[in-house]
Design brief:
It contains six helices and twelve strands. The chain is α+β, with helices and mostly antiparallel strands. It binds biotin. The site of biotin has 20 residues, from helix 2, strand 3, strand 6 and strand 7. It comes from Anatilimnocola aggregata.
């Protein structure tokens, strides 16, 4: 098995995407996806896939370690998931994390795979996947879901500052994985879970998200705007907001990023 190659014909035949664009090297698949999404003729879902990124982006000012062996792609979607009203937006983002979590769990049965609010995926307490959802102005209402999954890029070779906090599938179970198989599982899982969200609402997925939650019961620090909040995580409320028991009582947060948890 090639640890950093994709079977592009197989992906194109999968029936999961309308258009596939592959790049050996790209600054960021999300940036390329934003340019594509501005084109009226684009058939969605469209997938931008890269073997390597030179400027992979994470949320906020984070960067994404983007070497061959990692799975890095952006999915451009319109139509059904894009028709969700603003009230369903948090569900959309949370469900993306749940879908990836389930797909990765099917490839790595031995690991404890969990979602960290809102949609990071962790394996055995280390980050294995990050998701960056954007809808830039020229994207014609389409959404760009950028996903990075550490698959065959072992963290033994990673920059030192990442080694203790992140992991890859190959580090978790000691074996290489077929990137095309992992990608197909993720695309299939996203398709299925977003359809469920559209047809049955977030309430039909809430319990499954809660069962996969990494933070519930733990003390977390959340940065929300200029404020930092510390409290015990009580899970998510019915809309997907993070619930914390803080010294000021029970508070719910619709946005923010987790800075630490113990
Ligand atoms: O954890 C995060 O902060 C989100 C990381 C998202 C990384 C992926 S890799 C593919 C896509 N292209 C990017 O530049 N970023 C996303």
């Amino acid at each position: 098995m090639k640890r950093d190659r994709f079977d592009l014909p197989q992906l194109a035949r999968s029936g999961l995407i309308e258009r596939l664009e592959f790049h050996q090297s790209l600054a960021s698949t999300n940036d390329r996806a934003a340019a594509l999404a501005a084109e009226e003729w684009l058939a969605c879902p469209a997938l931008v896939l890269a073997q390597e990124q030179t400027a992979g982006r994470g949320r906020g000012s984070n960067r994404w370690w983007s070497v061959p062996g990692s799975l890095m792609f952006s999915l451009i979607i319109s139509g059904s998931p894009g028709e969700l009203g603003p009230a369903q937006w948090p569900g959309f983002s949370l469900v993306a994390g749940l879908a990836v979590c389930e797909a990765l769990a099917s490839h790595c049965l031995a690991a404890d795979i969990a979602v960290k609010w809102p949609n990071d995926v962790y394996a055995n307490e280390r980050k294995i996947c990050g998701i960056l959802i954007e809808s830039p102005a020229p994207a014609r209402g389409r959404m760009i879901v950028g996903i990075g999954v550490n698959v065959n890029n072992s963290f033994a070779d990673a920059p030192e500052e990442l080694r203790d906090s992140a992991t890859a599938l190959c580090d978790v179970d000691g074996q290489p994985h077929d990137l095309t198989d992992v990608l197909r599982s993720i695309l299939g899982s996203l398709d299925q879970r977003w359809q469920q969200l559209r047809e049955q609402g977030f309430s039909s997925l809430r319990q499954e998200w809660r069962d996969r939650s990494l933070l519930t019961g733990r003390i977390v620090q959340l940065q929300a705007g200029a404020q930092r909040h510390t409290g015990r995580c009580l899970g998510i409320d019915d809309d997907g907001a993070l619930l914390l028991q803080t010294e000021r009582g029970r508070q719910s947060f619709h946005a923010g990023s987790i800075v630490s948890f113990e």
